[in-house]
Amino acid sequence: AATSVVGILVATVVGRLANYSTDQVMIQRFQTTRSLKDGQQALLVNAISDLIWQIILCFVGLALFTYFAKVKALPKDVPSDFIFPYFMSEIFPTGVIGIVIATIFAASLATIGSALNSLTSVTIIDLYRYRPKPSTDVASDRQTSPGNVETSKGFSHSRVTVMSRSEVKSLAASRWLTVAFGVFGTIVGTQ
After folding, report:
1. pLDDT digits (tens, 9 = 90+) for 109-142
2. Integer Cα distance of 53 and 19 in angstroms
3. How far apart are CA 24 and CA 11, in angstroms?
4. Dihedral of alpha carbons 174, 179, 180, 186, sign
5. 118 and 140 Cβ atoms separated by less than 8 Å
6. Bridge partners of 158?
7. How far from chain centre, in Å, is Cα 49?
């Protein structure tokens, strides 16, 4: 079946709309805005920058197509997923290849980190914080002890934040959940 330009455009629009409406990281990003108008502006800016990014990627693909059509023929044994790495290994200097690979790893790690953070936040808020709790005395919950006092010193002032025991437990649970989700993702991703 031949791929048409209209088919590619429809698939791209539907795919991006699904990403904007179902991706937890994307939704969380828009929910952190102060108002509905700010959220709409953030969506618009994100959509425009996404469109610009898609156009740049299309030009990279067209440039690779032109290079292998006019300058040097692409060997038949190179799979379509390896055209860009093959081009990099043939044309780019060694140092530039390292910078590109480091950039790809950095972007991947940032994406994975934000996804793990979102997953942990949702799990803590939906499952951990709203579980049935035995009634406790609020005054004893806000008790200051060495385990739940955080001190941070600035240039000329000192600030002490007193966290409740439940907040300290939530923080500890979220840290362990982030580690657990990371380990689980690593195990499942390497299978």
Report:
1. 888 887 777 777 777 776 666 655 555 555 444 4
2. 15
3. 21
4. positive
5. no
6. 153
7. 16
Mean pLDDT of all residues belonging to the chain: 76
- Compute the distance between CA of residue 66 and CA of residue 74 in angstroms, rounded to an integer: 11
What pLDDT sits at residue 135?
55
Contact 88, 100 (CB under 8 A): yes
Whether 28 contacts 39, CB under 8 Å = no
Share of the chain above pLDDT 90, in %: 12
> Are 64 and 84 contacting, i.e. CB atoms less than 8 angstroms apart?
yes
Q: Could you tell me the sign of the dihedral formed by the alpha carbons of 9, 10, 15, 21, in that order?
A: positive
Cα–Cα distance, 49 to 181 (Å, whole number): 30
Over the stretch 44-95, which tens digit does the pLDDT of each residue have?
998 899 889 888 988 998 999 999 999 999 999 999 888 988 998 888 888 8
The alpha carbon of 177 is separated from its chain's Cα centroid by a whole number of angstroms, namely 17
- Please report, to the nearest 10 degrees, the dihedral formed by the alpha carbons of residues 177, 178, 181, 187 taken in order: -120
Give the span between the Cα atoms of 88 and 82, in whole angstroms. Answer: 10
CB atoms within 10 A of CB 182: 15
